[in-house]
Amino acid sequence: MPSFPKPSFAYTVNVSKEISALRTYMKSDAALKIPAATSKTLRIATWNIANLGEQDREDAHLQIIAEIISWFDIIAVQETKENYEHFKKIVAFAGRKYKFIFSDAAGNNERLAFIYDSNKVKVLEEVAEYAIPPSDYGDIKITGVPATFAGFDRSPFMVSFAAGNFQFTLMTVHLYYGDETPKKLGRRCLEAYAVARWADLRAKSKYTYNGIKDVFAMGDFNLPKIDKDDIIYKALVKRGLQLPAHTSLVYSNISNDQQYDQIAFLPGTKTRIKSDGIFPFDNAVFADIYATRKTSFKGYIKYYISDHRPMWIELDMQ
Q1: Does a structural domain hold residue 9?
Q2: Starting at the edge strand that comes first in sequence, how are the strands of the sheet with 110-117 ordered?
C-alpha cells in the first residue's frame, strides 16, 4: 500500500515505558494473553507491519515491534520492503536466537518473510515462492467471478519447518488489494482460491515434501469479513481450508472494522490448535499521545507501528 503520512508532531518515545505497558496489557485479560513458551507447544503469528523499510520509523519504534515479535516462535511478516534494514533491526532487537528468511521483492516492492526462534525451530529443505505453471491458470476459476487468473501480484512464500518431531509447512501471503469493482474483487477472489487449491492439492499429493500434512496459509488476505456470502471468504474455504473461530469476534486492523488477516488450516490440523487470538497492541501503547492528541493517535500508530494487529495460534506439537 502507499505509505501513510508522517505525523507532523515530534514525540520522544520511552521504550521501557511502552514495553512495560504492552506486557501489562497482555497479561491483564485471559482473552489477550499470549501463551508462555513450552517444549510441547508452538506459537505461530502473522503480522502485516505496514510499509516496513519505507516509513521513517525510529529505533524506539522498532524495539516496540520487536517486543511483540519476541512473544512468538514463528512470525510471518508482510509488507517488508526491498530495503529491509528496519526488518533486520527488528530481528536483532528481538534477540540473538531469532533468525529470518524472506522472498525477493515483488508487487508493490514488497517481500514476504518469516522470523523464527532458531533454538526451537529448524528451517527444512523446502523453501520456495509459490509458482503456478501458466498451463494451470485455467484451473483457477470460480463460477460467477468475472476475472481470469494471470498469476499473483505478490507470489506467496512457503517454508517447511521442524520443531522437535513436528514438521509443518507455512505459506505467507499478501493478496491483491483493489477497489470494490467486480474485476478487482474477482482478481483477489481468484488469488484466494489459488491459495486454497494449493493447500488441498498439497495435502493430497504423494509427493508432498516429507509427507507433511500440516499446512497453513497465513497473512493478509485482504478479506473484508468472515461471511458465508462474501466472495473472498467463499473462495478461501472452497477447497477445505478453515479459519480459527476467533476471527468472527476480533478485528485485525486498528480501525476495528476488517478481518483482513487470517491463519487458515485444513481440517486434519484443527485438533492441534490449543488457543488463538489477535493482540490489539494499539490499546496499550502511546497513552500520552491518546490523552493529548486523540485525533492524531491512529495516524501515529499506523506510521510508526502498523495499521494491522498480529494474529496468532498456539499448536500442540505432540
Answers
A1: no
A2: 98-102, 110-117, 74-81, 41-52, 311-316, 273-278
CATH code for position 113 = 3.60.10.10
Q: Residue written as cell 473484508?
A: 224
| 4 within a domain of the structure (yes/no) | no
| Dist. CA 112–CA 133, nearest whole Å | 21
Q: Please say if the pLDDT value at position 248 is more than 70.
A: no
Burial string for 186-216 (b: 16+ CB within 10 Å, else e) reads bbbbbbbbbbbbbbbebbeeeebeeebebbb
pLDDT recorded at residue 249: 64
**What is the per-residue DSSP string for 23-55?**
HHHHHS-TTTPPPPP-SSEEEEEEEEEEEETTS
Query: Helix, strand or coil for residue 81?
Result: strand
* pLDDT score of 30: 81
pTM: 0.96
* Domain-located, residue 36: yes
Computed over every residue of the chain, the mean pLDDT equals 94
Q: Give the 3-state secondary structure of residue 63.
A: helix
Map grid coordinates 512495560 to a residue. Answer: 20
Sequence-distant (6+) residues with CB within 8 A of 82 are 53, 105, 109, 110, 111
| Residues of the domain holding 277 | 15-316
Question: How many domains does the chain fold into?
Answer: 1
- Reported as a single tens digit per residue, the pLDDT across 35-78 is 999 999 999 999 999 999 999 999 999 999 999 999 999 999 99
Residues 6+ apart with CB under 8 A from 11: 286, 288, 289, 300
Tell me, yes or no, whether 10 lies in a domain: no
